[in-house]
Write a structure and sequence with these properties.
The protein has about 675 residues and is mainly beta. The strands form six sheets. The chain has a 22-stranded antiparallel β-barrel. The chain has a five-stranded mixed β-sheet with strand order 3-8-9-6-7. A two-stranded antiparallel sheet has the order 1-2. The longest helix has 16 residues. The radius of gyration is 24 Å and the shape is globular. It starts with a helix and ends with a strand.
């Protein structure tokens, strides 16, 4: 509590200085504030600044100049969002200290049907370079996507299935960027072309990056001291086996008319990447120093079908639906040999009826289903083959009377898991209710209460084997019950004149929080500590504040100052949970002057000393970035350069299992160009 009170005091001080609360942008990850309709928040869409749900959006412009990186790394630094930072190849979003299955990552509102939530070294089968928009929802209030989204939802919207005709019959963009820290090169293109009622889309992305440079030795001072060794700072070096090689390409076709649209798409993703600090001994007779580097090959083919029909009469305005089938393979190589192969094949579908808006009343009802077959074979097949079936029904409602309103929803879910280790089925109920008050056009005050249920995953139930990515011998617990959380959240939005504001304060109480805890016993064969899944009570509380102040304006030229702060604290009956991110404070100044954009950013992340058993503390760090962009307003050309981590700081993300073996990249110069037609 003292740290939380200090965090609160710092935020209040920041608000008093500006004076208000609004934007936290990560200098290590781009973001933009967009006050438009957020489709992930509800099937009928809601304005970002008029809902209790905590939302951030990366639009096409922000993504065009974003670094070529994993999804978690691109989103890292948004309010309450960090990354698992499993080197360059695998970074999954961490929201409010929660990761893995508690954060749902979607593509156009449907699940990825991959195995990325199973382990931190598994890459998400959706790259930010494919997206023309990413919506991030923090907290559990969004019931349209299941009670499992206790931490939040990340929706990657790629536009591969067009819902509207291009304005001039064709549009698209091409882009390229290069980076010095890893000799990286990214090339991408997308286009949409109309032919009568049909719209065709094509897109492709190619990214190559070598092992990246780091400012210090890979193994941290704390790690070496814990092992009884002396730390010697030998200066900058290269993090071995941190390369990435990615190809993603797809195509779609839509039939668009006054009645709505219907379309289909296909996408192929192929990625190879290294996993530093994840070596295996190739053979028991081989000396310990002669280890095989682990690399991962990911392949997925995905087919999507999506459409909407506008209904001419009755209580419903639209019928929306979508489905996806995917075949996913994740292969871990030990040198040239195949170690472990994870496969996931399945289909997911969703159907929604959106109500006619009447007197400020919006609503929708829907059904969602999933059938997925998971399998793992090889040395690290610590989770047995499992067939997973899910079915959910939900209703969302919103009443907006101008000066005040109500929003809420109810969802019922069932989940069945059938494996050789056993079978379990679960039924969960999730619901939320919120109220908001707008005393003036500029001020929005909201309060929401939600209760969500999450069924255990296949690894939490049935795991039994060595998991080198987490450096543990994991043992599941087939007797786990549903995880339930009751959350209370307050929201404040302010938007008047030069000042915009966004503030969220939350408290989440967990009944049956599922945690991986040490036993103090070592597995004889793997020599790894045995960890078991157990349930306990837990509390997560935190604050996210964002401030933006337009300090100068002349025509379209502006100077904007921004400040942000976020903190989260987790407690369980067994002690502090592992990998809870420390507080962060960031600031940015951005000058828009004719075709030029100049932006300077700084970010300070505090040390984390509240750690779980067998977890080392993490030192504080500070980074600084400088961006220069040129974009003539008469065309769609953008040229940009960015210097990142100017001070070559040592950055170790506390949310990462590799934090003491693989720091983040050092000083980096990015050059890029994009053209929109």
């Amino acid at each position: 509590m003292p740290q939380f009170r200090l965090s609160l005091a710092l935020t209040v001080s920041a608000v008093a200085l500006l004076p208000g609360v609004a934007l936290a942008q990560d200098p290590d990850g781009p973001a933009t504030r967009v006050d438009d309709i957020v489709v992930t928040a509800a099937p009928y869409g809601v304005a970002r600044q008029a809902t209790n749900i905590a939302v951030d959006v990366l639009d096409e412009e922000a993504l065009t100049t974003a670094p070529s990186a994993s999804l978690g790394d691109v989103l890292n630094g948004l309010p309450g969002v960090r990354t698992t930072a499993f080197a360059a190849g695998a970074g999954r979003p961490v929201i409010r200290g929660l990761a893995g299955p508690r954060v749902q990552v979607l593509t156009n509102g449907l699940g990825l049907i991959d195995a990325s939530s199973l382990s931190p070294d598994h890459q998400v089968a959706a790259d930010p370079g494919e997206a023309n928009r990413i919506e991030v929802l923090r907290g559990p209030q969004t019931l349209a996507f299941g009670g499992s989204a206790i931490g939040g939802v990340v929706n990657v919207i790629d536009g591969r299935i067009a819902e509207q005709r291009p304005a001039d019959g064709a549009d698209g963009r091409v882009w390229a960027q290069t980076s010095t820290v890893d000799d990286g090169l990214t090339l991408g293109a997308r286009g949409a072309f109309a032919a009568g009622p049909l719209v065709f889309t094509l897109d492709g992305l190619r990214r190559e990056a070598g092992d990246y440079d780091i400012p210090v030795p890979g193994e941290s001072r704390r790690q070496l001291e814990a092992e009884g060794e002396e730390y010697e700072d030998t200066g900058g070096t290269t993090l071995e086996n941190s390369f990435v090689d990615l190809s993603a390409y797809g195509a779609g076709v839509s039939w668009i008319g006054d009645w709505g649209f219907l379309g289909g798409s296909v996408k192929r993703t192929e990625t190879d990447y290294g996993v530093p600090g994840h070596e295996h001994e190739h053979d028991p007779l081989v000396p310990p120093h002669d280890e095989e580097a682990v690399t991962i090959g990911l392949e997925q083919t995905r087919y999507d079908l999506r459409g909407e029909v506008r209904l001419p009469s009755g209580p419903f305005a639209r019928l929306r639906g979508g489905g996806a089938w995917a075949d996913y393979t994740h292969t871990e190589f030990e040198g040239d040999d195949v170690g472990t192969v994870f496969t996931s094949q399945g289909v997911e579908g969703r159907l929604e009826l959106v109500q006619v808006r009447r007197g400020g009343w919006d609503g929708a009802v829907g059904v969602q289903g999933l059938k997925r077959d998971f399998d793992a074979r090889g040395d690290e097949a610590y989770v047995p083959a499992t067939d997973i079936s899910e079915l959910g029904v939900y209703a969302l409602q919103r009443l907006d009377y101008g000066a005040w309103g109500l929003e809420g929803g109810l969802r019922l879910d069932s989940r069945e898991l059938d494996s050789v280790a056993g079978a379990r089925d679960f039924s969960t109920v999730s619901g939320s209710l919120g109220a908001y008050f707008k005393p003036t056009d500029a001020l929005f005050l909201g309060l929401s209460l939600s209760r969500n249920g999450r069924a255990p995953t296949e690894s939490e139930l049935f795991a039994d084997g060595p998991h080198v990515a987490t450096r543990a011998y994991e043992v599941g617990n087939a007797g786990l019950r549903e995880e339930e959380v009751t959350s209370l959240e307050g929201a404040l939005h302010w938007d008047r004149g030069p000042l915009t504001v966004d503030l969220h304060v939350f408290n989440a109480d967990y009944d049956g929080f599922i945690d991986l805890v040490p036993t103090g016993v070592e597995d004889v064969d793997s020599e790894l500590e045995i960890f078991t899944y157990a349930q306990t009570d837990a509390t997560f509380r935190g604050l996210e504040a964002e401030v933006a102040y337009r300090a100068w304006e002349r025509g379209t030229d502006t100077l904007t100052l921004e400040l942000g702060y976020d903190t989260v604290r987790g407690d369980t009956d067994l002690g502090a949970p592992a990998r809870i991110p420390p507080w962060s404070l960031s600031g940015r100044a951005e000058l828009e002057w004719g075709p030029w954009t100049v932006r300077g950013q700084v970010r300070h992340v505090g040390e984390q000393t509240r750690v779980a058993a067998f977890e080392l503390p993490t030192d504080a760090y500070a980074t600084a970035d400088l961006y220069l962009g040129w974009s003539p307003r008469e065309d769609g050309l953008i040229l940009f350069a960015e210097a990142r981590n100017l001070t070559d700081a040592e950055v170790r993300e506390h949310t990462s299992f590799l934090k003491d073996l693989a720091p983040s990249p050092g000083r980096n110069l990015r050059l890029g160009a994009a053209y929109r037609f």
